[in-house]
Amino acid sequence: MRRIGFEDSLLQFFSLFKLQMFQMTDKCKPVLEEVQQYTAMCLEVCWLMNMCDPPIAIGSPPAKRSVFDSTIYREFTKSGKTVDYVVWLPLYLHENGPLLQKGVVQPLKTMGGSQSYQ
Length: 118
Fold this sequence. Notes:
- It is a single chain.
- By secondary structure, the protein is of the alpha+beta class.
- The protein contains three helices and eight strands.
- The strands form three sheets. Strands 1-4-5 form a three-stranded antiparallel beta sheet, with no helix packed on it.
- A hairpin with a 2-residue loop joins strand 7 (about 110) and strand 8 (about 115).
- The longest helix is centred in the first third of the chain and has 19 residues, at about 5-25.
């Protein structure tokens, strides 16, 4: 069974992750200390997504300043159709499978009916 030893494996993986991150630079250490619980939960979600058979798939990001597909992405805090940046990527049941959760993009600010590229 794939879930046997899940918690032990995840703890070992998180320990290795922290060790590598702390070796990067001194600038990373305070940030990593502040977000340890969040990071651990993100790693757990990613681990569980891969435990599915077939694994849950994460979609590809749209290119900056491209028009995003509103069937796959929703807007974040601004209205528009042109991507400024990606907030969350979409999730699929499996590779090339049905959409589980739309992604979220922040569109470029609309100025008087046209997109602002500033």
